[in-house]
Write a structure and sequence with these properties.
single chain; 294 residues; mainly alpha; 77% helix; globular
Amino acid sequence: MTALALLLAVVGAVCFAGAAVLQHGAITSRVDLRELLARPRWLAGAGLAVAGAGLHAVALVLAPVSVVQPIGVLAVPLAVGLSLRNRRPPGRVVAGAALCVAGVALVVRTAAAATPDAPADLGRFLLVSCTAAAAAGLGLAVLAARTTGRVRCVSCAAAGAVAFGLVSALLRAVSVQIATADVGTLLGAAAALAVALAAGGWLVQQGFASGPPAVVVAALTVVDPLMATGLGAGLLGEAGGLGPAGVAFLLGAGAVAAAGVALLARHHPDAARHPSSRHQNRSHQPSTPREVPT
């Protein structure tokens, strides 16, 4: 089952990389859903994203969050290659992608060595995980609203990744405890999934409007697994027996991956010339010259 889950997660990562490049190419400096729905390129990207999400969801039913979720980081080098096709990627961009992959791989290796404990009940998981995700996501969204350029791009993508990490952890929690959870709790989980998916999707589109797809994918595939793995470790009992040293190693691996995102955001060739945001576009409008009295 684990091997099949890993295969599905890898194919899902390929779908996500293709979706990112297609959707980024269809979005200008602002996100208008009605306009996007009329663009075949964006719809094709949305179809790939849905396919990737479906494969990822099945993988989460078959294997723990800490094993499946980080596989999505494979989308980073794929997105770099697709977004820079016919161009040689700069060395620092390659280094950033490598750091993302290495950092998340270390998270997987450490989490996989843990001994599973008994998970928290679904009701408690729902309350704690949604509260944590809302706090982190809102903080990043506020930062995105007050910034432009690469900072806005990474902040939007990271906020969306927090929402998607919550979705993955919730799917795993429901699949493990669906037989024992009451109907009210399951309905609450379904509502949380719907809200998180909608919020995450909107935030990611804002990221595509603010920066290159490789940067958005890097932020997604680093923050998403860290969020999901953290919830899996803290509430689903997937990191039992790690101890303080293991937790410190996990945090260090996360820092390595975050450094990779920073490198990509700073040195990707498209980041410097991409329209940063609607706010920046307004600031570049020419001002009307005042008349000078004679």
